[in-house]
């Protein structure tokens, strides 16, 4: 049953990166758009993320619950030593959701709309930034459980070049996913060209920050190159992601909406496999040379069995409801545009 629980944890993180990433990316693109085009991207992104934005954080909640119940030592380590970026990320999630609701459903459209818009776009940037920072810190061997000062215990483990490179890479990837999804949401050629340009810009940013991650890993002695190219699985997934990116651009230029979205999801899936497989089952690498493992630092067997049964049972209710939510919003959008 432990592998069922680990599978749910990994899939929850993947779906959150895909759906939540495109969701956050819509706000990132709005932040990086000129004032004259903000209203257009605001309307288009609302139509695109409306069906899923309320359900997105369900996947993050599932991942947190799995860690809390199934891997308490992992949960405790992250929540204690990375509590500062965690709080910033959670505040960003709350602020973004609140601003999104008020700017779209507020009965009175007044000057407060500008405030809601600012909160929405900046929290859309901050949240994935610190999500990436947390992920980078977990594998960078910066977390020092033997630290005896506040800065070394709670600040220097995430406030560094490598972690923020991963953070900005995450931001760029979210913007790239959003641009790809928004290309398929517009009909006129002018709008399609606009989002293609955004996709190009975000793709360049993704490649730039990927280079920064490798540079930072070399400086800090993090064996990232070995992780990604030192085993056949990671190597094949990296190659698959690169090939998918090539075909993705072909699909974008040919305006093949289903293909471009599938390829974007496939590319992110391959990247996530590549970065998690190399040090599996270790999920947190500590500064003292030890690791926290999903297999060796799990809860008692009875707890894992109960958690696995609960996840399997819950998925029978959650997944059909989610599909119906997307379907119903899609029908509503078609009726409004008809």
TrEMBL record:
Any one Pfam family match given in the protein's UniProt record, by short name: Cyt_bd_oxida_II
Keyword Cell membrane: yes
Topology with respect to the bilayer: Multi-pass membrane protein
InterPro entries documented for this protein: Cyt-d_oxidase_su2
First and last residue of the signal peptide: none
Transmembrane intervals: 6-32, 53-74, 80-99, 119-139, 159-183, 204-222, 228-250, 262-280, 307-327
Alphabetically ordered keywords of this record: Cell membrane, Membrane, Transmembrane, Transmembrane helix
Predominant subcellular localization, coarse grouping: membrane
Superkingdom, taxonomy of origin: Bacteria
Cell compartment(s), UniProt: Cell membrane
Similarity remark: Belongs to the cytochrome ubiquinol oxidase subunit 2 family.
Record protein name field: Cytochrome d ubiquinol oxidase subunit II
Organism: Mucilaginibacter jinjuensis
């Amino acid at each position: 049953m432990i592998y069922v629980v680990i599978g749910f944890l990994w899939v929850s993180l993947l779906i959150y990166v895909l759906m939540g990433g495109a969701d956050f990316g819509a706000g990132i693109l709005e932040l990086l758009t000129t004032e004259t085009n903000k209203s257009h991207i605001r309307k288009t992104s609302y139509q695109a993320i409306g069906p899923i934005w309320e359900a997105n954080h369900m996947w993050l909640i599932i991942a947190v619950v799995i860690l809390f119940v199934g891997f308490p030592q992992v949960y405790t380590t992250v929540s204690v030593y990375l509590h500062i970026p965690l709080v910033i990320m959670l505040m960003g999630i709350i602020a973004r959701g609140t601003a999104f609701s008020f700017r779209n459903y507020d009965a009175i459209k007044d000057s407060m709309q500008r405030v809601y818009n600012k909160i929405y776009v900046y929290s859309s940037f901050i949240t994935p930034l610190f999500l990436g920072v947390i992920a980078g810190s977990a594998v960078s061997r910066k977390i020092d459980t033997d630290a005896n000062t506040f800065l070394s215990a709670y600040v220097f483990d995430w406030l560094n070049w490598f972690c923020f490179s991963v953070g900005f890479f995450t931001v760029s990837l979210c913007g790239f996913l959003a641009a790809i999804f928004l290309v398929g949401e517009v009909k006129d050629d002018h709008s399609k060209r606009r989002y293609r340009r955004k996709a190009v810009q975000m793709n360049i940013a993704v490649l730039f920050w990927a280079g920064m991650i490798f540079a930072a890993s070399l400086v800090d002695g993090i064996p990232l190159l070995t992780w990604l190219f030192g085993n056949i699985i990671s190597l094949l997934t990296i190659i698959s992601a690169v090939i998918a990116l090539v075909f993705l651009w072909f699909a974008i230029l040919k305006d093949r909406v289903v293909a471009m979205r599938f390829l974007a999801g496939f590319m992110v899936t391959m990247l996530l496999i590549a970065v998690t497989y190399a040090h599996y089952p270790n999920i947190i690498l500590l500064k003292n040379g030890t690791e926290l493992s999903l297999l060796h630092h799990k809860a008692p067997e009875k707890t894992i069995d109960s958690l696995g049964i609960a996840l399997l049972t819950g998925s029978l209710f959650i997944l059909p409801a989610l599909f119906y939510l997307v379907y119903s919003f899609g029908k509503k959008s078609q009726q409004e545009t008809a």
